[in-house]
């Protein structure tokens, strides 16, 4: 399991125990990433419904006041990187403008 440098090749760990923990944690991250992707796709679908209904009723596709609320919420919960994450989610959820 170790290379010439004494590390596990896939994990960078220096012991079999650490390699096992890292491997297990990576599997958990992969599972979480799958769930996150699914939630983002669900968010996109819900946003499409909102946009469709807003446009059908004569409103604008994007509600900037609501987007500012979302940006503030993510920033408050996750700090500055939360703002970037929220911007990405909003961009994905808006579709083509």
What does this structure look like?
By secondary structure, this protein is mainly alpha-helical. It has three helices and no strands.
> Could you tell me the radius of gyration in angstroms?
21 Å
**Helix run count:** 3
Average pLDDT works out at: 90
Structural class: mainly alpha
End-to-end gap: 51 Å
Report on the biggest sheet.
none
Shape annotation:
elongated
Low-confidence stretches: 1-5
Q: Name the helicity range.
A: over 70%
Beta content comes to: under 5%
* Annotation, overall tally of beta strands: 0
Order of helices and strands: HHH
Brief descriptors of the model:
97 residues; mainly alpha; 3 helices
Indicate the topology.
Elements: H1 16-56, H2 64-78, H3 80-94
Helix pairs in contact: 1-3, 2-3
Short account of what is shown:
This protein is mainly α. The chain has helices at residues 16-56, 64-78, 80-94. 2% of the residues are buried.
